[in-house]
């Protein structure tokens, strides 16, 4: 199995940390070279069973320039071209404008599975998890909701296993 997976999320939610955790397990490639004009490769995860190319989608971040419109359109089509989208959030913080903006774009995505990845579970008590899941679920439907700690690796393998089912 193989596929392309976009990682989206506002700054500081742990996208780079997650990549380091995933790619650190099975090193294949780690590159900042532009792959196309639309996507940047974060890294490639390779095992005997699966190869996953993780991509950064620049336009998913709130635009603040004249390029904004173009970027948003490019991001929209890029998100429709990948096999799955990981939407990373910081479970210890409340939903803000950055998250709402990203979810507005994710709602336009047609057939691509969208995972809600609740990162930084090491920062909260387990009973705080359900209210967060409920809040996000009110905003939109997610294909899967997976809590992880990118920092200590907790549940990251489960995330990769679940992801593989959609490739
Ligand atoms: P990015 O901007 O989305 O790429 O976020 P980074 O990967 O740079 O992480 C931002 C900050 O959050 C860094 O200080 C990380 O060490 C921290 N961080 C990332 N993942 C976790 C996590 O699972 N738990 C905790 N406690 N901190 C994390
Ligand atoms: Mg980063």
TrEMBL record:
<keyword id="KW-0963">Cytoplasm</keyword>
<feature type="binding site">
    <location>
        <begin position="56"/>
        <end position="60"/>
    </location>
    <ligand>
        <name>GTP</name>
    </ligand>
</feature>
<comment type="function">
    <text>An essential GTPase that binds both GDP and GTP, with rapid nucleotide exchange. Plays a role in 16S rRNA processing and 30S ribosomal subunit biogenesis and possibly also in cell cycle regulation and energy metabolism.</text>
</comment>
<keyword id="KW-0690">Ribosome biogenesis</keyword>
<feature type="region of interest" description="G4">
    <location>
        <begin position="119"/>
        <end position="122"/>
    </location>
</feature>
<feature type="region of interest" description="G1">
    <location>
        <begin position="9"/>
        <end position="16"/>
    </location>
</feature>
<comment type="subunit">
    <text>Monomer.</text>
</comment>
<keyword id="KW-0472">Membrane</keyword>
<keyword id="KW-0342">GTP-binding</keyword>
<feature type="binding site">
    <location>
        <begin position="119"/>
        <end position="122"/>
    </location>
    <ligand>
        <name>GTP</name>
    </ligand>
</feature>
<keyword id="KW-0699">rRNA-binding</keyword>
<feature type="region of interest" description="G5">
    <location>
        <begin position="148"/>
        <end position="150"/>
    </location>
</feature>
<comment type="similarity">
    <text>Belongs to the TRAFAC class TrmE-Era-EngA-EngB-Septin-like GTPase superfamily. Era GTPase family.</text>
</comment>
<protein>
    <recommendedName>
        <fullName>GTPase Era</fullName>
    </recommendedName>
</protein>
<keyword id="KW-1003">Cell membrane</keyword>
<feature type="domain" description="Era-type G">
    <location>
        <begin position="1"/>
        <end position="167"/>
    </location>
</feature>
<keyword id="KW-0547">Nucleotide-binding</keyword>
<keyword id="KW-0694">RNA-binding</keyword>
<feature type="region of interest" description="G2">
    <location>
        <begin position="35"/>
        <end position="39"/>
    </location>
</feature>
<feature type="binding site">
    <location>
        <begin position="9"/>
        <end position="16"/>
    </location>
    <ligand>
        <name>GTP</name>
    </ligand>
</feature>
<feature type="region of interest" description="G3">
    <location>
        <begin position="56"/>
        <end position="59"/>
    </location>
</feature>
